[in-house]
Design goal:
heterodimer, A: 3 helical TM bundles of succinate and fumarate reductases, 4 helices, 61% helix, 0% strand, elongated, B: 3 helical TM bundles of succinate and fumarate reductases, transmembrane (chain A), transmembrane helix (chain A), SQR/QFR_C/D (chain A)
């Protein structure tokens, strides 16, 4: 097998010859985050495989996706809840994953803080935006003419 | 080790896509025209190949994630981690082959065959 080895993060650099960051308090946050990655991961496998199968494999696949397709799905509470759960779990799972990568590779305290601040703001904006879109969505907007789902009243 | 590198890279790629995916889907709240126009811009072979690569990344991340869970929680997980990596790769091929046939057929037939 290959003999090339990638050093473990935080293990081998001029700036941090040994792991020496401040020991944080006796919080269980990291353990909860570790467990969350595994629990949300299992749920996301089901949610995302279902999402991909319905949107890409059934019917005309990705070619069929337009406004009417989305409107048809979100007229059902089933898909609203499905997509809401997928949004929150995937965003929190991804945010925590990127947080771990930032902690591993951004060695300066300032860099780490800055990157994580940007990450948290971006994640919060996307979660709030996505949640609002799912719940304030109107499948038959007034004045719209193209790609409406078939159940909209004819103008 | 390479599965660990692959898990990190696919994770970041999927996360970046997810941010964009929520933003483009949010256009349904603007107007049907805005959403359908942007989605229409995705409907070409280049994006179709990008979607295939994205699904490949998701399927690897999903199966390898389940392997990580098995290593962490199953008593014999660490002992069989290498066999489970082969299982992940085989399962990845088993899922990707039918997916690619179906998806690329849709992408290329609609693009070159017209509407």
């Amino acid at each position: 097998m290959s003999s090339k080895v990638i050093d473990a993060p935080r293990s081998n650099s001029a700036e941090t010859p040994k792991y020496k960051r401040n020991k944080s308090s006796h919080s269980s946050f990291e353990m909860v985050a570790w467990l969350f990655m595994r629990v949300s991961g299992v749920v996301l496998v089901v949610l995302i495989f279902g999402h991909l199968f319905v949107n890409l494999m059934l019917g005309d696949g990705i070619h069929a996706i337009d406004f009417g397709f989305v409107a048809g799905k979100w007229s059902s509470p089933f898909w609203q809840i499905w997509d809401l759960a997928m949004l929150w779990l995937a965003m929190l799972h991804g945010t925590n994953g990127v947080r771990t990568i930032i902690n591993d590779y951004a060695e300066r305290n300032g860099t780490r803080m800055t990157l994580k601040t940007v990450l948290y703001i971006a994640s919060a904006v996307i979660i709030v935006l996505g949640t609002l879109v799912i719940f304030t969505f109107d499948p038959c907007p007034a004045g719209a003419v193209i790609d409406l789902p078939s159940f909209c009243p004819v103008p | 080790m390479w599965s660990w590198v692959g898990h990190r890279i696919t994770g970041v790629v999927i996360f970046v896509f997810l941010l964009v995916h929520v933003l483009d889907t949010s256009l349904v709240r603007v107007s049907p025209e805005a959403y359908t126009a942007v989605i229409g811009a995705y409907k070409n072979p280049i994006m179709g190949l990008g979607e295939a690569a994205l699904v490949a990344a998701i399927v690897f991340h999903a199966f390898n994630g389940l392997r990580i869970i098995a290593i962490d929680f199953w008593k014999k997980g660490p002992k069989y981690q290498r066999q489970m990596l082969w299982t992940v790769l085989i399962a990845w091929v088993v899922v990707m082959v039918p997916f690619l046939i179906r998806h690329l057929t849709i992408v290329f037939s609609n693009f070159f065959g017209g509407h």
